[in-house]
Structure formats: C-alpha cells, structure tokens
Amino acid sequence: MKKNLLFAVLTALLLSACCNKGQKQTNSCCKSGEQSSCCKKEALTFNNADFYKDGKFDEEAAKDAIVKLMKYYNYPVTENTRSQLWVSDYGTGHFTELGLAAIMYANDTVDRYMLQDMFLLPNQMLPEHWHEKPENALPAKMEGWLVRNGSSYIVGEGEDNLASFPEIKIPACHENGVTVKNVIKTLPGSFVPLSRVYSHHWQFAGAEGAIITEVANVHVNEAVRHQVKAINDHFLGK
C-alpha cells in the first residue's frame, strides 16, 4: 500500500514538473494515451494579419511561425535553421491560406539529386504547379514526398475525389487554379511519388500543419510553372 502511494506521489510530482516547464505536449512525463492538460499539445493558430507590415509580406514573422511549427513537432532547430528557411506567400497576401516554407539541404545539378524539407502551416495550401524541362541539359523534375509530421493532402492527376474531402478549402486567391483533383490523404510515414514527369500537383496541410521531406532528381526555379498566372509571375519575378 505504501509503495503504491509513494509511486502515485512521485508520478504526480513528475507530471507537475513537466507542466511547470511549459511542456504542453506528449512526452516521457505522460502515460501512453493520456489526455491531461500536461500531455495535450497547444493548438497551432496563426492570424494572417500578423504576417504583413504596411501591406508587405513580413518574412521574419513567417519564419517565426515556421520555427514554432518545427518546435511543435520537435524538429531540430539549429543556429543555421532560420537563415536556411525560404518562405513565400506567392504574392497573394494570404500566407495562412496559401504559401510555403522550405529548407533546401541538397540540390546537386551534376549528380542530379535533391533533398529538401517543406513546411506547411495548418490548413495552408501549396499552389498547383508543375515542372518543365530546364533550358540547360538537366531533366524535368521528378519528385516524391515523405510526410514526417502532421498530415497533408497530396493532390495530382487521377480520378477526381476532391469532394470526398470537404475539409480541403481552396482559398479564393486560387479558386480558379485547380485542375487536378485526385487526393491522397497522408500521415507520418506516407510516401507519395509524383504520378509522372510534367504532371500538375498541389498540397493542402491538415489541421496541425505538416513537415514533409521532398526527394527529387534536381530542382530549377526557372522551370517551375504555376497554374495561376499572378502566382507564376510572382514566383518567376516577372
């Protein structure tokens, strides 16, 4: 009886210590499946207005949000992480609805391999696009995506099943830009390859955002094409 009481007291103290440190996420302090306030993750919420100053996209605020997403999933944040981050709202003014952040870890145009991590905020859309063959001798990009954290709806060519996923909300800035509607809902550990070279594709993050590793033969910015002309012009700097 005394041993059981002692165990209960020690467990309570350990959980309390975790909460006092502000660890609002599942960790070694929490029993498997426990749903106490100590174990629950704090919801990731963002206000679009916070990413704009005087009508201009605030990249530093966007990076703050991505670092918050990283820490939410215990992604390694190093002293170089922030400087490596690329963030964009594609010129739409609606970063929380349509945008992307990424870190390109490798893009070897000689041996032709690429590795990057992509970061999507909750319910954020990566706009529909495809990859043309670059003007140099490089091939058109062929790629695939490994979902590490959160969830993402990866969309490409195939049977239209978009209506089966009412949680996917195409933002107004892209409502006329969706031509492919075959949705694959993914969870951590899911790998989805591009259906074929040159095919259109887009993604939509789940309610807790997503961290996705992309592998490919090579990436060339100038060979990217977006379905929406204004987004395409912005991306290509026209």
Question: What attributes characterize this protein structure?
Answer:
9-stranded antiparallel β-sheet, 2 domains, about 20% helix, Jelly Rolls, about 240 residues, alpha+beta, two-stranded antiparallel sheet
Outline the structure in words.
The protein is an alpha+beta fold. The N and C termini lie far apart (75 Å). Residues 13-37 have low confidence and may be disordered. It has two domains: 1-42; 44-236, Jelly Rolls (Sandwich), CATH 2.60.120. The chain has helices at residues 2-20, 59-72, 81-84, 229-236; strands at 52-53, 56-57, 86-88, 100-108, 113-120, 125-131, 143-156, 182-186, 191-193, 201-216, 224-226. Strands 3, 4, 5, 6, 7, 8, 9, 10 and 11 form a nine-stranded antiparallel beta sheet that branches. Strands 1-2 form a two-stranded antiparallel ribbon. The chain is 19% helix and 30% strand.
Strand and helix layout:
Blueprint: H1 2-20, E1 52-53, E2 56-57, H2 59-72, H3 81-84, E3 86-88, E4 100-108, E5 113-120, E6 125-131, E7 143-156, E8 182-186, E9 191-193, E10 201-216, E11 224-226, H4 229-236
